[in-house]
Amino acid sequence: MSKLKISPNVLDDLCSRFLLNIPSQEKEDMIRLCFQIELAHWFYLDFFRAENNRLPDCRMKEFAKLVFETYPFLLNPSDVNVDKVLESWKEYKRSVPTYGAILMDSTLEYVLLVQGFWIKASWGFPKGKVNKDEQPEICAAREVLEETGYDITKSIKPNQYAEHLLNEQLSRLYFVRDVPLDTKFGPKTRGEIKNVQWFSVSDLPAHKKDQTPKQNLNIAANCFFMVIPFMKQLR
What we know:
The chain is α+β, with helices and mostly antiparallel strands. It has helices at 8-18, 24-28, 30-51, 60-70, 82-95, 136-148, 212-217, 231-234; strands at 98-103, 110-116, 123-124, 127-129, 161-166, 169-176, 193-200. It is found in: Cytoplasm, P-body; Nucleus. Its cofactor is Mn(2+); Mg(2+).
């Protein structure tokens, strides 16, 4: 029994945002599921707990155990050892970085973001996990093409990128400039990307309490939580 106590309403909100609607193959793969739980944990700390410090602080391991305890249908198989799953996930995460791109127009005033089907209302940069023996730039170009339909192969400059270690996983985004604003985007993969849209850099949040997107776009800052770590390099 987990000692961690988080309000059922908060857990249900996080579960509906990050876990309930993901594809069945994601739920069946415990490693992939752990990545979704990590997003929920990150969101919990950055937004729920930041707004209400009476909510308990917790590490990913504690949080994941509480999630599996509260929603046992996520366990596959039902008697799986959660500690071993989390250890395998940590080892995998450290070994598999993600690559993608920050696409901007010629004025550098607009940036392209994608919205997935499975993470409720959240926007981020097109990116994904690298395949075995795949070069970073090749991975970035492949992921951008899959998620937006736009080929950046000839536009990538290997030394121009922003890089962050997000919860122990390397995330590198290459800067790609001079993308026409009238480009027709269309995801190549089905069921992953719901929207592809230009945003003014000045409308995006610089930090999690930034009210700019709410005022200008009527979109809460927490919908851009995967963008915020890279905003310093965009301004």
